[in-house]
Amino acid sequence: MIIPMHELLKEAKKGKYGVAAPNVFNRETIEACFLAAKELRAPIILDVAGVHGIYECADIARFYERRYPEVPVALNLDHGGPYEDIVNAIHAGFSSVMIDRSQSSFEDNVKETSEIVKIAHACGISVEAELGHVGQAYEYDKTRDSGLTRPEEASDFLKQTQVDCLAVAVGTSHGVYQGECKIDFPLLDTLAAQIEQPLVLHGGSGSGDENLRKTIEHGIQKVNLNTDLVMSGLDRIQASCKNNFEIKVPAGVNMDEFTTKRMNMQQLYALGADGYKEKLMHYMKLFKSNGRW
Ligand SMILES: [Zn+2]
Q1: Is 171 within any annotated ligand binding site?
Q2: Cα(103)–Cα(88) distance, rounded to whole angstroms?
Q3: pTM listed for this prediction
Q4: How is the cofactor bound, in the record's words (predicted)?
């Protein structure tokens, strides 16, 4: 069932585990998430970016919600940018929205986030905001330190905005890291000690299993994942294709009966979804969210 995100995260905080929040963008990835969650009895958060189709993804998620009503799932708008996107997500039936004003001034971040909180809470929907700024991994050496969340701002931000969970910048980054991911665990400890609301880690991919396991021990409840999952899907596609997408014929299979030896799109999507799902399940187990329902 699709439920407000703060309910999933409150349970995670109580149980000291992390919930995987994969980016989804089509039927295959949404189905893979439901299947992974069902197989491992893990809660899951579907993160949808505005560019990937707010209404489309909401409808697909509701289709799988009806098929697998036992799966506890939150549908969250990832990095909500334009005001219209955020309102559309609420209208489309999302159970959570992120408003990302992490590159605005503290005052503007507070002001615009508070406005969304007022609307979302009136509809029973959770809000995630970001304080500090999680940058892009290709410029990690330039942005890692400048974006770190400042603990002296955090309590004030939460009091003023009343958000349900907070994305913090503690050294991770989006995409493929240039160099090695360095997480500031003392900073995370300071934030976790003073913040009651669940904490969100963006840029989980490529951060390393040991780092991610530790961030959960140190107070993270939601881990956003994209790059590692889609790379795993692409690896699966690549491994199953020869040049020019000819099917690699399994031993003992007589291909003469087929009209074509070329891989078709359906097979490619299915292979991609398999790789995506496998990596997602790896992370669900790493975050100790399996067996929670
Ligand atoms: Zn992010």
Answers
A1: no
A2: 22
A3: 0.94
A4: Binds 2 Zn(2+) ions per subunit. One is catalytic and the other provides a structural contribution.
Known active-site residue 274 = no
**pLDDT tens series, the chain, 293 aa:** 999 999 999 999 999 999 999 999 999 999 999 999 999 999 999 999 999 999 999 999 999 999 999 999 999 999 999 999 999 999 999 999 999 999 999 999 999 999 999 999 999 999 999 999 999 999 998 888 899 999 999 999 999 999 999 999 999 999 999 889 999 999 999 999 999 999 999 999 999 999 999 999 999 999 999 999 999 999 998 887 765 566 666 677 666 655 455 667 788 899 999 999 999 999 999 999 999 99
The residue type found at 87 is: V
CA 224 – ligand 1 centroid, Å:
7
Q: Which domains are delineated in the chain?
A: 5-229+276-287 (3.20.20.70)
Tell me if 205 is assigned to a ligand binding site. yes
- CA-to-CA distance for 151 and 216, rounded, in angstroms? 18
Amino acid at 208: G
